[in-house]
Amino acid sequence: QVQMVESGGGLVQAGGSLGLSCAASGNIFSINRMGWYRQAPGKQRELVSTITSGGTTNYADSVKGRFTISRDNAKNTVVLQMNSLKPEDTGVYYCNAIVSSVVRTSTREYLYWGQGTQVTVSS
What we know:
By secondary structure, the chain is an all-beta fold. The chain contains no helices and 11 strands. The strands form 2 sheets. Strands 2, 4, 5, 6, 9, 10 and 11 form a 7-stranded mixed sheet that branches. The chain has a 4-stranded antiparallel sheet with strand order 1-3-8-7, with no helix packed on it.
């Protein structure tokens, strides 16, 4: 089993910055892709950004140039730095990770999610 613990988030005025962090722990052999998703009230969860173990990043068009994702492979953490925040960035932010775990004598991949952290941007 793997636990994903998020921290950060909160309330900020438009134009401000926030940082989100997510740490994975437990039965981890390796972590492939890590990422952040968000869900605004009344909307579906959407991709914000992902990063592979090799450092390849991907961003939603709506956050390109404002958000930066990074990870520390040694600490199994992923960070999302959010700058120039807009009211439309408001929502619950979830981290996830594709984790390879040891099962008996082999490894298997599982997808894990964090519990979510609220980001509110006031206008």
